[in-house]
Amino acid sequence: MLSIIVPVLNEAESLETLHREISDVARRLDEPIEILFVDDGSTDASWSVIQSLAGSDASVAGFRFRRNFGKAAALTAGMRAARGNVILMIDADLQDDPAEIPRMLGKLGEGFDVVNGWKERRLDPWHKVYPSKVFNGLVGAITGLKLHDHNCGLKLFRSEVAAEIRLYGELHRFIPVLAHARGFRVTELAVNHRPRRFGSSKYGVRRFARGFLDLLTVTFLTGFGQRPQHILGGVGLCFLALGFCGLFYLAVIWCCTHLAGAQFGPIGTRPLLPYSIAAALLGAQALSLGLLAELLVAYTGKESDTYSIRETTRACPPVTDRLLETEAVGRFPKNSA
C-alpha cells in the first residue's frame, strides 16, 4: 500500500483538486493507496473540505490538530497513522504534481530507500530560488549528501525510514540527510513544479535562518549524537592546550625574571595572562559538558538507536519486545531449547 501524507495549513481551495489528481493517478497504479490529510491548525474551511472528502472516499482519512504545531509535527502524525509500506509526502498547494508518483515509485524500485524530488525548473520568486540554491549547496558540503533540492516537499520513502527517524522543529526538510546517516540509500528525481494557484507561501525570510540552525542540529545529531564527547572534548582539549601553552610561556618568563635576573617585565600586565586563563577554563567547561552529554547518552539512549538493520536471515522479535520481556522476569530469558 502507498500512504500519501498531505500536511494542510489554510489550503481549502486546493484540496478537492489535489484529491482528484491523486485519485486519477491511483487508478493507474497496481497497488492500493490511502490519503492522509493532516490539518495543522487551519483557520479557513480546510477541515470541512477534508471531512467531505473522507465521507465520499474510503481511502481518505483526516487528522486535525488543536493548533498549529508545524509541518514536522503534521508529517510525524501522518507517518504514525500510515499503513503502507511506502510513504509519499506532498504539499497541499498544488505546486507538487501527483502525476510524478509513478516515476518516483519506479525510481524507488531500482533499489533505493528514499527518492527526493528535485524542482529542476522552479516556478518561485528569485528571492526564494537563489537562497535555496546556496542552502542546498551548504547542506551537501556539510552532510556529504549532495542533492539539488533538499527543501522539495515531494518525497517518497519506505516505511522503514519513517520508523527510524524522528522529526521535530523543522527537520522535515532533512529527511534525506537523516535517512542517509542511518545507512539508507537516497537518490533524487527531477519533477514537475507548478506555479501556486491559491493562497500564499507559508515561509518567509526567517525560514533560511532557521534552516541554517537546523542544519547545525542535524550535523551534530548525525555525526556526534552517540558520541558527543568527540566534538565537545575535542574543542575542550584544543582550548586547554592553548591555555596551558600560554600559561607555560608566562611561567618561563616569570622564572627568567625572578630567578635568572632577566628583564622581561611583569607578567601581570600582559594580555596573554587573562586570555590563557580564559582558554583553560573554557576548555575545562567543554570537557565537562562532553562528559555530562556522554552520561545522558549512556543512561537514556536506546540500543536500537545506534544501528540500522537492512535485512536478516532469521525471524526475531524486535529489540523493544525483548527488553520488555527481560524487565518483566528481572533477568535475561533462558533459551527454551
Task: Indicate how many domains the architecture comprises.
Answer: 2
Compute the number of strand runs. Answer: 7
What topology, given as strand order, has the largest sheet?
A: 3-2-1-4-6-5-7
Mean pLDDT: 83
Kindly name the structural category. Answer: alpha/beta
The radius of gyration computed from the alpha-carbon positions, rounded to a whole number of angstroms, is 27 Å
| Low-pLDDT segments | 319-337
Q: Please report the first level of CATH classification, the CATH class of the largest domain.
A: Alpha Beta
- Helix-strand string: EHEHEHEHEHEHHEHHHH
**Helix content range:** 40-55%
Question: Shape, please?
Answer: elongated
β-sheet strand percentage:
5-15%
> How many helices?
11
Describe the 3D structure.
With 337 residues, the protein is an alpha/beta fold. It has two domains: 2-224, Spore Coat Polysaccharide Biosynthesis Protein SpsA, Chain A; 228-304. It is built from eleven helices and seven strands. It has helices spanning 12-26, 46-56, 71-81, 101-108, 126-143, 159-164, 175-181, 206-224, 228-258, 272-300, 319-329; strands at residues 2-8, 33-39, 60-64, 86-89, 114-119, 155-158, 186-191. Strands 3-2-1-4-6-5-7 form a seven-stranded mixed sheet, with helices on both faces. The longest helix has 31 residues, at 228-258. The radius of gyration is 27 Å and the shape is elongated. The two termini are 38 Å apart.
